[in-house]
Specification:
The chain has 307 residues and is of the alpha/beta class. The protein is built from 10 helices and 12 strands. Strand 4, helix 2 and strand 5 form a beta-alpha-beta unit. Bound molecules: 2-keto-D-gluconic acid.
Length: 307
């Protein structure tokens, strides 16, 4: 009998009906996983934040697929997957537009001071004088760190707002008509708005550090739609409190982070990891995961494969 094991609850949208033709065994923690009979397990279901714990590889002799609900693969060891002959599916194209939209939303909200404007209206601030001016998006320079699917989608949106776009990546992409910068520091020095859209993992760990923030400068804005691991949070707090940069949009921070409580007065917008959190995108992500699980049960080809 082919069996499917799910390593974590999925953030399925309210109103989404999971398929009834697939039986999935929940094993949401180490003890539950230890209790699973490993025979006949052909697929594991997980999401980007849970990933695949390192001691899972090699446990399931018939494993064919890890189906990841999300684009981030930093918690799935793809080398281990290859060594064990396991395919890894993920959901990149389904969430690209929504995550890019959120990056631009944070950018425009920071430039036009939307949270401060909202607070002004709610406190009946007209007696204080007119609400101050914001900054035009048109003509600003957007520096994108990481020109993958999401980075390119951010670039297209920024260009539509009349912004100039530059990027840094492991290598220049000559097919893209955008200014390439060899280092994040140089990109930050050029940019008015620096947006992180790189994968998480060892290569990008704490790449947004004090030096990069200093290069971005006192009128610069930083927006993170990448993993929280790419940011040195202490450096970001210092940069905002000391006016080294002008503001930040923070979509991801560590679950135990003190960042929101340390940044109450500064020009910072927080969102609670909602990049893919729309009914349409989360439904499409779920469809992709369940379609691949069904393919594993039937021995059919998978879609959206990372390896
Ligand atoms: C999801 C994400 O919220 O795709 C990712 O990597 O971080 C988000 O889209 C995450 O997968 C949790 O389900």
């Amino acid at each position: 009998m082919n069996r499917i094991v799910q390593l974590t609850p999925l953030p399925l949208p309210a109103g989404y009906t999971p398929p009834t033709d697939i039986a999935i065994e929940p094993a949401f923690d180490a003890a539950a996983l230890d209790a699973v009979d490993p025979t006949d397990v052909v697929a594991l279901v997980t999401h980007s934040i849970r990933g695949v714990p390192s001691d899972v590889w090699g446990r399931f002799p018939d494993l064919r697929l890890v189906a990841n609900f999300g684009v981030g693969l930093d918690r799935i060891d793809l080398d281990q997957a290859k060594q064990h002959g396991v395919a890894v599916s993920y959901t990149p194209d389904h969430l690209t537009a929504d995550v890019a939209d959120l990056a631009i939303t944070l950018t425009l909200d920071l430039l036009r001071r939307v949270p401060a404007a909202d607070a002004f209206v709610r406190r009946n601030g007209w007696s204080e004088g007119p609400f101050g001016l914001g900054t035009s998006a048109k003509g600003r320079r957007v520096g994108i760190i990481g020109l993958g699917r999401i980075g390119k989608a951010i670039a297209a949106r920024a260009a539509a707002f009349g912004m100039e776009v530059g990027y840094t990546a492991r290598a220049a992409k000559p097919a893209e008509p955008l200014a390439f910068f060899a280092s994040t520091r140089d990109l930050a020095a050029w940019a008015d708005v620096l947006i992180a859209a790189v994968p998480g993992g060892a290569d990008t760990d704490r790449m947004i550090d004090a030096e990069v923030l200093a290069a971005l400068g006192m009128t610069g804005l930083f927006v993170n739609v990448a993993r929280s691991s790419v940011v040195d949070e202490d450096a970001l707090v210092a940069a905002l409190k000391e006016g080294i940069i002008a503001g930040a949009g923070v979509e991801l921070f560590e679950a135990a982070s003190t960042l929101p409580s340390r940044l109450t007065d500064q020009n910072v917008i927080f969102t609670p990891h909602i990049g893919s959190a729309t009914f349409q995108t989360r439904s499409a992500m779920a469809d992709s995961v369940f379609d691949n699980v069904r393919a594993a049960l039937k021995g059919e080809a998978f879609t959206d494969l990372a390896v």
